[in-house]
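If you are new to this repository, start here. Below is one unmodified record pulled from the training split, so you can see the exact layout before writing a loader.
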Amino acid sequence: MPFCRLPARRTTPCSPLWLVCAVYFAVRGDLMFLGLSFGLALATKSTAYLFAPPLLASVLAVQWLEERRPRWAAIALALTAGTLLLNAPQYSRNFRFSRSPLGYDSPYGQGGPFRWANARFGWKPLVSNSLRNLSDQLGDWSARWNHAEFNAILRIHRALRIDPQNPETTWPGAQFSPPVLTAHEGSANNRWHLLLMTASIVLAVWWAFHHRDLIWLFYGGGLFLAFLLFCFYLKWENSGARLLLPLFILGSPLAGMLVAKIRPAPVAVLVCLFLLDGVRLPLLKNWSRPLMGPQRVFITPRDEQYFMDMLPLNDRTWELRAMELTVRSACDSVGLDVSGDQAEYPFQALLRARNPKSRFIHTGVENASAKYYPAEIPKPCAVLCMNCVGNPTKIPKYEAIGNPIVLKRSLLFLKERVDGKP
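And here is the target side for that same chain:
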């Protein structure tokens, strides 16, 4: 499948880790590990291209203020070496594929409105994306609060004559609407952390003015600039809140500085307990892996857990049916057409558990990566065409294998066995 430019579409657990490590080793002045962490951050999550420069620059500026005299040439060499050591092979593959070391600037190289970058740059896209991303972080369980906050953002847009649904700065299909607070990591916000970080930056400004200590002001400025770069470059999308997680993690030292200065000390303890209580619902009642309730992970069979993150899509029944029919067909070479949907993993995992000989072939590949399709490949004896119902081009493509079996919105084509059964 094609390689992607900013940003990777899924948040991986390690995506903030290497960026945090890069900042940590920059503070310590450990150049070898700084370079390696920086290279891993770029390889793991492409938003690091936006976040890392201002954050590392703020750390180096602090060192310069402390008269530690950063070794600029050595730092540049470490960052360059770490980047190329870990990413040069990927850059080379991307360049051969798309003529860019970063790959295509849109999924599957289709371009047009599907480019991740804003179609137009300027102060209006920056302000609009900043306001909408902040709105996503301020959602509450109260619908009244959410609508009030949403209407306030709309009034600011109207006052500045900015379209909050501008397709040039909004991901196709996304619709700016009142924020919703959930217990799922894909859409959970960080409203209290945002409030704490904002207060911390205000304190950093006050501290710099009254005590001539610019360290925390520079660090807070690096975080703020990283956020602005994110909003300046990338289109707003409904699930964009998750992409800002690295900034909240890296804002913890700044927030810790504020909490440490709160007097009396028991108030700081109460703040920590309040934040700890906020973890309760996402940890215990996250619908994809809850630790409490009738579907908690300790008692839910593994086969069912494959579908926990797709419960709103109600995909479990038809995928299980597709798996059972494919097992009964004794087919070992299974084609997957995911041009309409990419939720194929549960089907693959369940089928391999029942038939370890199963091998999967992606069919119907029409994007730019089709040029890498092997010249000689076994023809599948079954094809699962996901979300293909209503697509008139799919049945003629696979009907030679067998008549399609309709499974919700998907089609399963099976070759008949010798006994005449699918």
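Two things worth knowing about this chain: The longest strand covers residues 333-337. The longest helix spans residues 72-98.
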